[in-house]
User: What shape does this take?
Amino acid sequence: MTYPLLITAFVISTCGLIYELIAGTIASYLLGDSITQFSTVIGVYLFAMGIGSFLSKYVGKNVMLTFVQVELLIGVVGGSSAAILFMLFEHVEHFRVLLYAIVAIIGILVGLEVPLLMRILKDRLEFKDLVSQVFTFDYVGALLASLCFPLVLVPHLGLLRSSFLFGLLNVLVALWTMQLLQKELPWRRSLQSVAVVLIVFLVCGFAFSEKITTWSEASAFQDPVIYAASTPYQRIVITGGGKDIKLFLNGNLQFNSRDEYRYHEALIHPAMASLDHPQKVLVLGGGDGMAVREILKYQSVRNITLIDLDSQMTNLFKEQLMLTRLNGDSLNDAKVHVLNQDAFVWLKNCAERFDLIVVDFPDPSNFSLGKLYSDTFYRSVKRALNPQGIAVIQSTSPYFAKNSYWCVVNTLNSIGLRTTPYHAYVPSFGDWGYVMASPVEFKPATNYPQGLKFISAETVAPMLTFPSDMQPTVQSINKLNNQTLVHLFESEWGEYVETH
Assistant: This one.
């Protein structure tokens, strides 16, 4: 009986860490700033575990009964935690209170598990063997969870199914323990009935996870959700209503088909048209293929390399007819080479040189993205530019986040590139900012490709001037070791969201 109970320690450790990882991931998806969210979730969780361990001393004679009850509670609370958080995100004013309350409840229950299990085993093992073996199985379970979560669970099951699955495992642990300790356990039949009800509940939750996700996302987006998927890197949602198709990554709008041409024409053509017969182009990010579509309007281009971390994103915009119509099937063009790699690492090791480098990453809302706006990263961009080449960077809004915008400009200046800041009005985003950076002085183009809807010599000229309400009040440089830009961005956009 000893080793079956030690296997229980392995299973409950795996389940406990999975719940912690799920809560941290959901907080990152919904609230942004992954480092802050994971740090606070882990802190609350570990503190709550300490409380649970402390409370275990108040469990008197019914240790086995309490252990089984705790497992059943963890199964239902932990198993349904992801669904609860997703469904209530748009309906709870103080979402963080709900998040930390659920994390704390799970943490307290998990903190009770190991002390109770050790007390059950204390008469079956010597103390030194008891401690070493329980914690060995506990830590091995933690290792398994940390490996399975990013490699198997998130990409193949998703967060909701993973949550329900491990809740089911906790309930099965309770049933397993009832069987092992049946002679010593009171109320066994009642507990078995409760366990069966919870198993039915969790299996139904697992089976209907996609519908739960669809319902929760339908309440979060104005238009019907026509595609949704969780990848190891982000949550992709595409909505469609009438003529509009919108792409959201982790809940943040990336484009609206109604006006995306304004964003992408402004991103590409002021720099591209000013170059003399550009041939080699590098696109970092931009996995939707819209920027590539605009680059392909130049006959001189022979090679376009696109680096995007998420293969599910690029495959989606290569294969779905509705989306290939938007990007002109650009990602399937013979001139385009798509590599699904980390742009930070790839560019650092790149020996090629490019006439144009397009940096089209999401806004620096967390530290993983913030490193792609750092002086360290821009030095890699500078090395990869031809002597007359230009880099163009999407740089958030100089109106809503003016200090963040000018931080990007200052960071590029700090590594010796000459910058040309400019901005354009995109209805879905408001006044949006870009920066061109080059080893040489920028000379505006006079000729642009035929058929552009927005960009021309006449429209570009006013983009190069900034009114006083877009001037910075803070001068800063984004370094890899301080991530100043992320803090500025979170502060400025957070203030805007709160007032609207």
User: Anything to note?
Assistant: The chain has three domains: 2-204, 217-254, 258-499. The chain has 17 helices and eleven strands.
